[in-house]
Amino acid sequence: MSIVVTFAGRTPLPAAGSWYQIWSYRVQPSSPADLHPGQRVALALPADVDVRDPALFPGVPALDGAFVEPDPGSGRQYAGRSVTGTGPLTVSFVAPPAQSERDLLLVVGGPGRPWTVTPFATSPGGPAGPVRVLTAPVPGPVRTGRPVTEFAGTLPYASELFGVYQPLPGWLGYGSAGRFAATHGRRPPAEAFAGPAARGLESPELAALARLAGQDPPTEGILSPVGLVNLFRQYFYEFDTFLGAPAGHLWLSPGGMVELVETSTRRTLVERTANQSEETGRKSEETLTDQSDVADAVKESNANDTSLGASAAGGASFAGIYHADASASFATKSTTGKSSELTHKHTRTQSSKVSSEIRRNFTTTFKTVTETTDTSSRRYVVQNTTDRLANYELRRKMRKVGVQVQHIGTRMSWQVFVNAPGRVLGLGELVDVVPAPDLTAVRKPEPPEPLAPILSTFTGTFPIAEHPDSTNAPHQDADWRRQEGFDRMWRGEEDEYIMANFDYGAIPPAPGYTLSTNPDFVQLVSAKNGHGTDAKFLVKYVIQRPDTGRFQVRADNVHFGGTAVITFTLQLRWEPPAVNPAEEAYKTALAAYEKEVAALQRKAYAAAVRERTTLLSKVRPRPAEDLRKEERHSVFAHLVDQLRLFDPKDAHLEAELIRQIFDVDQMLYFVSPDFWRPDDVSAPPDADSLGRYPVPPVRWEGVADDPLAGETVVTAYSRTSSHNGPDAKGPAPAREWRVDYLITPDSQPAPMGSSLGWLVQADGDERRNEFLNSAWVKAVLPIRPGHEQEALGWLTKAGVEGEAALDRPYAWQEGDPDEYRDQTIGRVLELLAAELQAANTSVANTLAAEQVFETGFDPLAGGFRPAEPYRVFDQWVEVLPTDQVVAVEVAYDPKTGRQL
Q1: DSSP one-letter code for 151
Q2: pLDDT at 255 over 60
Q3: What are the pLDDT digits (tens) for 401-411?
C-alpha cells in the first residue's frame, strides 16, 4: 500500500477583494509509519504557477503551518506543511483559480534535510508512482487586481460626452455649392436652386456644377448642407487597486530601523526642458500632466484638441465632435457603425496617451534622515524585528480604472460655411506702463547765456594842438569852432588853427566783441578841462575799425577853459560776436549727452520689450467655455447675416426662426484646417514686411487723445530680420528675410502659429488663435429633436439651401434598409428624418441611454462589438499610479540573485 493524495477542492480566499483561492489536497497515509510528527510534506508544483506566500494571509485557519519554498535549481516550488499528528494531512496553498490536469510530485523531508520524492497514488488501490496527474493550478494570465467581471454593477464615477459628424453627400446646397460655383465662374442665383428643374439638375448651370462636384476627388460631401452627428458617452469606473513595479529598495540589519520621508511631486512640462524634448505632441498633450485622473485628463484633452468641432460643454451638449469622412450610406445603423470604429480608435488612443502622461506624472524621492523638520512630508518608520537581514521593495499603489463607450443617439444637422468669423472679435491688450529711464546719473550740460551787447566806458584826452596850417600858437582861453570844409577849428583869426579830429582805440570787453557801427550808441558821459570843471565839448564820432575798437572824435565846438587839454569819458556799445564760442562747446557736450541718453533709452526700451514679451507669454488664458461662447456668437451672427429669408431682410425674425428649429446652443464648428486665404501667403517676406504686430517705436510721452498710447500690448511682437541664404557667396551675399517672433529666457514657449505669422490673442488658447486666423469655418447646427422633418422642409427653401439634386437616384448601399431601394436622395432624406424624429422622441431610447447610471458596469465580452444604437460597444482598462507607496518584504537567492 502507498500514500494516497486526492484533490479536495478550492475555496475563495476570505480576504476581501482577492481573486486568489485556497487549493487543498488530502494526503492519506497507508500506515502510521508513512508520516510521523516533525516531518515536512509538500507537493512539488511547477515554478511558473503563481503560488502566494501563506504568511501574507494571517488569520486563515486553512493556512496555519503552511509554507512555500522555491527551488530555482529544479524549476519547482514546494507547497506543504509540517506533520503534527497521525492520520490524514491536508496540504493547502493560495493560487489563482485557473486549473488543469498536471503532473505533480509528493516530497517529504525532515528539518534541515533535503527533499525526497515519495511514490503515491491518486485513489485507494490505484497505481502508485513518483509522478501522478492531479487537478492543479495553471500559470494563466498575469493579472493586476481582480478580473473586471467581479465589478459588475459598479456605478461610473465620471462620464464624458462626444460625437462623430459625417456629411451626407448628394444634395447640392446653395451655400456651399454656390461658393464652389463662384470659384469656377459665375455663382448661380438662389432661385436657380429651387423648383423641379433644380431637383433634377436640368438647368445647364446646375448640371455643370454637378459634374464638377462628382469629379475626382469628389466634393459632394463638402457641398451637401446636411449630415449626421452620432453621439457617444464615455464612462469611467473605479475598479480595485494593486501594487505596481518597485519604486525603490532598502535593506535593514537585524533590529535596525530607518525613517523614510516621501516627497511626491508633479512634473510640469513647460518647466522642464528635458521633458519637453521628449514630447512630440501638441500643447494639449503637455497640459495633461496637470491631471491625476484619466477622466479629468480626457475632459481636458477634449477641451484642448483643436481637431474637434467646438461646441458647448455641459448638460446634454456636445463636449467634442470628431469629423469623419462623408457617409455614402444614409442608414443610421451604417453611420453608427462607422462612427463607432472612429470612436474606438480615438478613445483608446486618447486614454492610453493620457494614462501614460499620468504615469509619468509622479516622482517619488526617498531619503534616509535622522531628523526632519518638514511636517508636510509623509514620514514612514520601517523596523526589522527579526534576527536576519531584511530586504524591502517600495512599491507604488496603482489604480485600475475601467472605461466603456456607449452610443446614445443620432442627430441630423445643417452644415454651412462662414467667412472670416474672427474678424469681429476684439483682442485683450496687456496694460504695461513702462517708466522712462532714470537719467539722474547723466548730467545735462547747461546752455550758455545768450551773448548781449556790452556797454563800457572809455576815457580819453582831447588836447589843444596846433594845426599845420596855423602860423600862431593857439589861445587856450578861446571858443574854437570847426571851419566848414576843413579838418581844423578856428576862432575867427586867419592865422590861428587847431586840430579838429583825433583817433582813439578802445579795448573790447570780451573776445569777439566789436564796437557798434552806429555812432549814436557812443554817448558822452563827461568832459572836464584841466581845472576839473565842465568844458564845452561838442563833437561827432566816426567808427573806423569795429573789430579793434578804433574810432575818431570830430570836434565841432570846444572850449578848453584856459587849459591845454579836455578829459572826456564816453559810453561805448559793443556788439556780441555772431558765433558764441561757448555755444559750440555746449553743442558738443549736448550731443554727447543726447548720445548717452539715447543709449540708456534704447537699453531701457529693449528691457521693456523683453519684460513685456515675458509678461505676455505668462498671461493666463481665459476659460475655454467663454472663448467658445464668443466664437459661437460670432459664427451665428455671420450665419444670420448670410441668409436672405425675408424681403426686406429682418435679422431678428431670421435668428428666431433658426433657433426654433435648430439647437443653436449646441452649434459646433470646424475651423478651416489649412487656413486658406484668397491672397498668396506662400510668398517669402522681404525687407518691407512688418508682421502682424511689429515692435512699436519708443514713446516716453503720452498722447493727448489716447492716454494709453504706448502702454498696452495686443499680441506677441514681430520683427523682420535677415540672414544669409544657404548658397551665400561673395562680399554681398543674397539675404533671406523672415518675420520672426520674440522670446526671452524667462518667457513661456511661443503659442502655436507664432512661426506662421498668426495673430495670437494674449489670453486665448490654441483654438482661439486658429479661429482668429481662419478664412472660414464650417458651422454645424444640430436639429432639435422632434423637428427633423420640419427642418428638412425649411432647408429646401430657395433662400436657404434649395433643392438641387434631390431628385437624383440614391445609391443604395449594403446594409441600408430595403425601403431605400430605388428612391431619390430627397425621399431617402425624408425617410431618414422621420426615423430620427421617432427615435429622438422615444422615451425608451432615452432610458436606454441613461441605463448605465442605474444598473452600473456590465462587462462586455471581448472588449468590443460593432456598435448598435443605444448600446455599450467598447470596453478597456487603464492603470493609473497613486501617490502612495508600500514597503513589501522580499527575499533573494544569494547564488542567482533572483527574487524568491
Answers
A1: G
A2: yes
A3: 999 999 988 99
